[in-house]
Amino acid sequence: MPSLTQKQNAFASRIADGETQSAAYRASYDVAQMDDATVWSEASRLVRHPQVAARVELLKAEKDHIRRSLVLDHEEAILAQLQHEAFTAKTDGARIRALELLGRHAGMFTERVEVEQVERSVSQIEAAIRQRLERMGIA
User: Does the pTM of the predicted model rise above 0.85?
Assistant: First the structure.
């Protein structure tokens, strides 16, 4: 597979960072003699280039992996600190709050509401609506 040029790499990186196609193209290429429509057209063509598209996807996947790793690292650190606080905090209120947050994280305090779905036919629904309208004095 042929490697990308420096400009194609710069474009792919900017796209992976969330820039618009036109903005990424303007930042990566010399567009001084191009009008907006040409920039848009060239950017659109370049983002569909198989090697550029593959590079964009790879960069996005790498960024997503890094972001998820950071979130997990922070989550683990926060949970460890909450556990420490739950057992060593100086006040009862602080210990209870830490335990509450740990319990909430574990899903212990979520309310569960059961909803029973009743299957009704169109004619049953129409009859129920007519009945209500009659009670209201509308029908």
Answer: no
CA dist 65 → 34, 62, 68 (Å)? 37, 5, 5
The H or E element that residue 130 is part of is helix 122-136
Cα separation, 79 vs 86, whole angstroms: 10
Radius of gyration of the chain (CA): 29
**Number of compact structural domains in the chain:** 1
Whether residue 79 is contained in a domain is answered as: yes
Among 19-23, 58-62, 88-92, 114-118, whose mean pLDDT is lowest? 114-118
Average pLDDT over all residues of the chain: 90
In angstroms, the CA 54 to CA 47 distance is 10
Within-domain flag for 119: no
